[in-house]
Write a structure and sequence with these properties.
There is one protein chain. By secondary structure, the chain is of the alpha/beta class. The strands form 2 sheets. Strands 1, 2, 3, 4, 5, 6, 7, 8, 9 and 12 form a 10-stranded mixed β-sheet that branches. Strands 10-11 form a two-stranded antiparallel sheet. The radius of gyration is 21 Å and the shape is globular. The chain is about 45% helix and about 15% strand. The chain has 15 helices and 12 strands. The longest helix has about 35 residues.
Length: about 400
């Protein structure tokens, strides 16, 4: 087999998918990377892409790309001290107003009040990010050579497209594919807020002539933006482990909270795993026959290192229910999200320090257990990172077994 060995100094892209409060796990992995690199290192990822909560983490790294350890430290301080009230309003009056608005709008068919735009008011998150993000730092980092590109994904409600808004050095052309595109932009707080606007939970954001929502929607190929922007290898930090959960016996009808948690889980993670499988298959083809040109585009090998939680975060979230504001606990209980099996929804909404600190510690530990892989991937580049991840090995093994069965 002709395998392309990654070369030293190949351009590395960092991909940070969505995951709500689970994105605290990404911060733990980033902290481990900062500890493994020399203390004064600048950003080791020339290309950074983020989606939903991952867009928050991506932007935090980009605005301080000249000082990676400082960027991670700032990010960690925010996540370690999170309160739900810093993300959306949870005070009694706000929750009552929201509930009454929904009730009156439904009972009157929209005659008394217009339909509400969202369940929660996430103005506190906008204020928090405005306080911490100097978007001119992105431009300075690009001009100084500490960053090649930052891309933030959002979904257009009218065009039904997944759009990667990117800011980069010269030479990166916009792209357009079926239901997805890359558009150059001067990135602002609105781009980040659009990317984190989970449907139903948070209001959409108007940019130009279109309203945009959470970047995970319609994002069938979350790795493509980093590749379009020149990444030759990808470090992906996911927020969901790849183990299957046991089926309840006897089966119980899922509550609304369980169903909504399932929907969020699919929204945030399905695209990553399907794109990972697709890219693994492309790598195997390139290994066997060399670079392939398809529809005028050359397919090259893209080495990947994927780090995901070593345990189920839905179960972890259940241990932190008491930390939630009382009004939110009442809402989740009404939805059935506090019942057995309802931890999925909680795991995405639990922006509370006790939970986020545990996820940061988990991410740090998971990354440190793979420090040799990480150092090789970030520095020496001599390891075959595409099969260095357990997920990659399983995908590759599955493809080989299917090929053998067809022969």
């Amino acid at each position: 087999m002709n395998r392309n060995v990654p070369v030293r100094n190949a351009r590395i892209g960092l991909v940070l998918p969505g995951g709500g409060a689970r994105a605290a796990y990404q911060v733990g992995v980033l902290r481990a990377i900062a500890d493994l690199l020399p203390s004064r290192s600048s950003n080791p990822f020339p290309v950074i892409t983020g989606t939903s909560a991952g867009a928050v983490n991506a932007t935090a790294l980009a605005v301080h790309a000249d000082r990676f350890r400082v960027a991670v430290g700032n990010l960690e301080r925010v996540w370690r001290n999170f309160r739900v009230s810093q993300v959306f309003r949870t005070d009694t009056s706000s929750m009552l107003r929201s509930g009454l608005h929904w009730l009156l709008a439904m009972l009157s068919g929209g005659w008394l009040l217009p339909p509400p735009k969202s369940l929660f008011d996430n103005t506190p998150l906008r204020e928090l990010l405005r306080e911490h993000f100097d978007f001119d730092g992105i431009r300075r980092a690009i001009a100084a050579g500490h960053l090649d590109a930052l891309a933030i994904a959002a979904a257009g409600y009218t065009s039904a497209r997944s759009v990667s808004f990117y800011e980069s050095k010269e030479g990166h052309r916009p792209w357009s594919r079926m239901r997805r595109a890359g558009e150059p932009a001067v990135l602002t707080l609105d781009h980040v807020m659009a990317s984190v606007s989970v449907p139903f939970l948070f209001p959409p954001v108007l940019m130009g002539q279109e309203y945009y929502g959470d970047g995970s929607m319609r994002q069938a190929t979350p790795f493509s933006a980093a590749i379009h922007l020149g990444a030759q290898r990808l470090l992906v930090i996911g927020t969901r482990n790849d183990t299957s959960l046991p089926v309840a016996v006897p089966p119980a009808s899922p509550t609304f909270g369980q169903i909504f948690g399932y929907m969020l889980d699919a929204l945030f993670t399905d695209g990553m795993y399907s794109d990972l499988e697709r890219l693994t298959q492309v790598n195997q083809i390139v290994d066997q026959v060399g670079p392939v040109v398809v529809a005028g585009h050359e397919l090259k090998r893209i080495d990947m290192l994927v780090i995901v939680p070593s345990r189920d975060l839905a179960q972890t979230a259940r241990h932190h229910v008491a930390a939630l504001p009382r009004q939110l606990r009442v809402l989740l209980r009404t939805m059935g999200a506090l019942n057995t099996g309802g931890g999925q929804l909680m795991s995405y909404l639990l922006f509370q320090d006790t939970y986020t600190r545990e996820l940061i510690s988990l991410g740090y530990g998971d990354a440190m257990r793979r420090k040799d892989e990480l150092l090789a991937f970030l520095g020496a580049g001599a390891a075959d990172a595409a099969v260095g991840t357990g997920i990659g090995r399983r995908l590759a093994s599955g493809e080989e077994q299917r090929t053998q069965s067809q022969q």
